[in-house]
Amino acid sequence: MVELLLDSHFWVGVALVTFLGVLVMVGVHKLAWKALGDAGAKVQAQLDEAEALRKEAQDLLAEVKAQKEAADRLAVEITANAKDEAKRLQAEAQEKLAEQIQRRGEMAERRIAQAEAQAAADVKAAAADLATALAEKVLTARLAGAKSDPLVDQAIGQMAAKLQ
């Protein structure tokens, strides 16, 4: 047993056990457990915060996707409405153009008919004037020989009445 007391390893072991006993009595182990528990709680809080941030990011991503889908649907709807409106406006413009062409054609036909009627009236008037002038020359030539013929005077009177 004396050998045991002279062995340095023994005394190092005794010192270690004594030191550990003192640490236990002072409550260092409680501080260590508390420090480890606090560190664990900090880590757990960080994990909880990270989980909350991940959930918030997923919710935000889902909201953004929903907004994008709504915007895409709205864009498709606006495009379809614009195409329908363009088709409607094109049909309306074609209809108005056809009506305008028809009105102008009818107006041109009326003007042509008026011009034809005026030309016919002008020709008739010119023919009547020419016939009157010729009749006057013929009658003047006939009457130059005979100063007064009652039948000729009567015919001239009738002709004058008819021409007016």
Structural account:
The chain is mainly alpha-helical. The chain has one domain (8-135). Helix content is 95%, strand content 0%. It is built from four helices and no strands. The radius of gyration is 64 Å and the shape is rod-shaped. The mean pLDDT is 88.
Entry summary:
The protein has 164 residues and is mainly α. The protein has helices at 2-6, 8-26, 28-145, 150-163. It has one domain.
Which descriptors would you attach to this protein?
4 helices, mainly alpha, about 160 residues
- Residue-averaged pLDDT, rounded? 88
- What percentage of the residues does DSSP assign to strands (E)? under 5%
Question: Unreliable segments (pLDDT under 50, ≥5 consecutive)?
Answer: none
Apparent shape:
rod-shaped
One letter per element, helices H and strands E, the order comes to HHHH
Give the N-to-C terminal Cα separation.
177 Å
Topology:
Layout: H1 2-6, H2 8-26, H3 28-145, H4 150-163
